[in-house]
Amino acid sequence: MKCKNCQAEVPEYFTNCPNCKESMIADSGTTQPTSPKQFTQERSSPGQPSPQQYSSHSVEKADESSGNRKNNNRMAIYGLIGVGGLILISVIIIIVVTSSTRNANGAESNQPIPGNTIENNLSDSPAPNEENRADHADSPLVNNEDSPLVNNEDTTRPHDNAETPEPPSPEPLPLPGEQSILLDKSTYAPGESVQIKVTGVTQEMLDAWGWVGAYHAGDSNDAYGRLGLWEYLTSTGTVTFDFTLPSDTGSFEFRLFNDSGHSDEAFVLSVPFTIGS
Asked: What is the pLDDT of residues 85-132, one digit of tens each?
């Protein structure tokens, strides 16, 4: 049945057109079917499909379309996975080939070049000859009278002929077991301060309270108190003492003893000096 308004095909059991909502009740007073069942029963033409057949056919079409859509989506996903796998394999192959080529080039660069040695380079260099000298005849350093490096008769530096001062010779050190008394001079003024050095002091002399003192020349060892100038040894090796000489003039001497006594056995040595002008 057609709608009078929009001419659309409408099932006979519809009371209103689904397109334009126009009433489908006939003016001739014919009664419209009230249900699809009634419409099916009242249909006289056996060749027309029933609404149930229309509905099942639509469902089958919808299921078939949904299945096709799912198959298409699945195939698209499989295609993307395949393309991604091919790209990954290609990248791996490129990396491997590049790394192999780089290693091969590095190995070739590390190999020595045959014949490329220092000796060969030196042997291949041309020896200086007259032709080479002629090529460099215009050089400012060759055959130039004004050159400070070539053909200059006076090439010595001022300090080459200067006499180099010899370093002062050190004072001789006493041998082990040898003692000495060192004075800076032999004559002093009355009341002058004097510094003496006693060398070669041993641990035995230090333990035995060895000492050094000033005497008038010719006095016995017992006369150590006449001038009152004496000191005990304070360390091993070299010991330095400072004394102030008396105002008397004449000949004197410093004497060294290896113990606290003043006997001839304890006497070690003496050094003379003079007080006066």
From this structure: 999 999 999 999 988 888 777 665 555 444 444 444 444 555 545 555
Instruction: Name the region of 108 (left: φ>0; alpha: ψ -120 to 50; beta: rest).
Output: alpha
- Radius of gyration, alpha carbons of the chain: 67
3-state SS assignment for residue 219: coil
**In the 8-state DSSP scheme, what is residue 195?**
E
Give the H/E segment covering residue 206.
helix 203-207
Taking residue 8's Cβ as centre, other Cβ atoms within 10 Å add up to 13
Instruction: Compute the residue count for the chain.
Output: 277
User: Which residues are registered as beta bridge partners of 187?
Assistant: 274
Element (H, E) at 46: none
What is the model's pTM? 0.38
Number of neighbouring beta carbons within 10 Å of residue 53: 11
- Look-up: residue for tokens 């100038």? 229
Q: DSSP readout, 89-148?
A: HHHHHHHHHHHHHHHHHHHHHHSPPTT-SHHHHHHHSPPP-HHHHHHTTT-TTSS-TT-S
